[in-house]
Amino acid sequence: LLRQATKDYTIRDIIRVLEREDDPQNASLIDELEYLSEVEIFAKEGTRIDELVIKGKTTIINLKGVPPDIQELVVNRLATAMFELRKVGRIPPMMLVVEEAHNFCPQVGQVASSKVFRTLASEGRKFGLGLVVITQRAAKVDKNVLSQCNTQIILKVTNPNDLKAIIASVEGLTTAMAEEISRLPIGVAIMTGGGLQMPLMVEVRPRETRHGGESVKVIED
Fold it and tell me: Across all residues in the chain, what is the average pLDDT?
């Protein structure tokens, strides 16, 4: 009905139409639409994918404060759209970097973005779409995704389960190296991958950007 009446309509317009129908079966759908309206992830004019992916530029999509289920939907939609557009050459070759990757491709359970990240990890590179997964909890990331990563940069990890997951997914990494990983100083990492004959220890220079990851001070000094 809305499509016949107008070209542009909002979630609130859909809710009004459903409420006028006075159908009890619409109640749960209205609740979901109300929720989507409250989180404000839809706009009258969205950002096109080709505006996000521009050669020589970095686009940061900040989902801080967005409910987890909505984060999964947004990440799934973006990753899927980028992959499809890259396959037909409508966006330039790109690298997709995913922070807190264990939330979007978990080892246990399924989320909205699980499937697309398995696909990107196994097929993305041949279409010119690289994938970087970043996590502090390697044991919680889908092993199918971890095992497809060609290069690993490993900073200090002390959790035994995470160390086991790293050893299992990284070819050539020994138990002795795992012990080294647990003792790495800040800013030092072990790098390994198909392009390296052996694991290398590298020192990462101090960042030049403003730090935004500090914990909130509950008690002032």
Answer: 87
Cα dihedral sign, 208-213-216-217: negative
The secondary structure of 20-47 as a DSSP string is HHT-GGGHHHHHHHHHHHHHT---SS--
Helices (H) and strands (E) in the chain, counts: 9, 5
Helix, strand or coil, per DSSP, at residue 148: coil
Residues 6 or more apart whose Cβ sits within 8 Å of residue 191? 151, 152, 153, 154, 199, 200, 201, 202
pLDDT of residue 32: 85
pTM of the predicted protein model:
0.79
Give the contacts of 168 (CB within 8 A, at least 6 positions apart). Answer: 143
Model confidence over 45-57: pLDDT tens digits?
778 888 999 999 9
| DSSP letter, residue 106 | B
Radius of gyration from C-alpha coordinates of the chain? 22
User: Is the Cβ–Cβ distance between 202 and 193 less than 8 Å?
Assistant: no
Burial call 36-62: b when 16+ CB within 10 Å, e when fewer = beeeebeeeeeeebeebbeeeeeeeee
Helix, coil or strand: residue 176: helix
One-letter amino acid of 63: L
Q: Does position 6 have pLDDT exceeding 80, yes or no?
A: no
